[in-house]
Amino acid sequence: MPTIVVEVMPKAELLDPQGKAVAGALARLGKNEFSAVRIGKRFELTVDGEVDAALLAQVDELAADLFSNSVIEDVVSVTVND
Amino acid sequence: MKIGVITFPGSLDDRDAQRAVRLAGATPVALWHGDHDLQGVDAIVLPGGFSYGDYLRAGAIASHSPIMAEVIDAASKGMPVLGICNGFQMLAEARLLPGAHTRNGHQQFICRDQKMRVENASTDWTNGYAEGQEIVIPLKNADGRFVADAETITRIEGNGQVVFRYLDVNPNASINDIAGVANERGNVVGLMPHPEHATELGFGPDTADAMRSGTDGLAFFTSAIAALTRV
Nearest-CA neighbor of B4 among B34, B22, B30? Predict the structure, then answer.
């Protein structure tokens, strides 16, 4: 069954406290190659049947209205995995 | 005068809000998230809690509840609507109020008696206060950091839509110490601290006079009654 994957990230200009906490852990582990960490969300929508343009349009709408809040987040990708 | 309090799956403070409504002199009406019925109420409170476990984003799933269609319609017609904590998050997610909420800057849940200043005493929920009045009511949240883009912040600051500002301590790294905001019309108000927990002697924050004697939150509810009486 095909899967539609939606990825959402906190806006670049906003503080991401989760990412900051993980970056702090990396520094404590001596992993100094990384200067920053940001954490986002991945939604995997399993589809019963075919993925067509109408369904993808519906997912775009859901990604903008439900899966993300445009005040604080950006939808970075919507992809189909067969 | 009937003030409805909507219960969502995961609401915690709906009963406290109903009690605050009663103490203020109005009749509380329990409303249910899954209904399409406001039962003829004159004003609405969206209470605090953790609707749907705060999954997705705090207040996000609840903001799409069946009853929210009626809430959005009533708010657009001028009905007083108050969102407390999780209710504030829902009103922001429903775009009835500007901005949004993210996790507290320090990443932790915080619970404290919070001092704040009433910046706008002309809304339907704050007309019983004086402009600039300092009040103390409980605050308890994990996702309380108010954020909006710079343009929105400039606009709401200029319009007087910033209704409350944290004093002494900014408990969650909210932009401009913003604790609560209103829509342009002033009938929809949301804030992170909990006025319903400071409405009754013996159960509120400590004051200089006596332990647990703080009732600074009661005027939210008497303000709404006054706003409705004036109409």
Answer: B30
- Domains of chain B in sequence order: 2-230 (3.40.50.880)
| Residue ranges of domains in chain A, CATH in brackets | 3-81 (3.30.1280.10)
Instruction: State how far the Cα of B153 lies from the Cα of A24, in Å rounded to an integer.
Output: 30
Find all residues with CB under 8 Å of B219, minimum gap 6, and list them. Answer: B126, B128, B129
Q: Which chain B positions have a beta carbon within 8 Å of A67's beta carbon?
A: 56
Put simply, the answer to whether A69 touches B93 (Cβ < 8 Å) is yes
- A66: tokens are 């439900």
Reported ipTM: 0.86
**pLDDT tens digits, residue range A22-62?**
999 999 999 999 999 999 999 999 999 999 999 999 999 99
Nearest C-alpha of chain B: how many angstroms from A20? 10
Query: In residues, how long is chain B?
Result: 231
The residue behind tokens 């339907």 is B124
Q: CB pairs below 8 Å between A and B: how many?
A: 34
N- to C-terminal Cα distance for chain A? 7
Q: For this structure, is B194 an active site residue?
A: yes
Catalytic site includes residue B85: yes
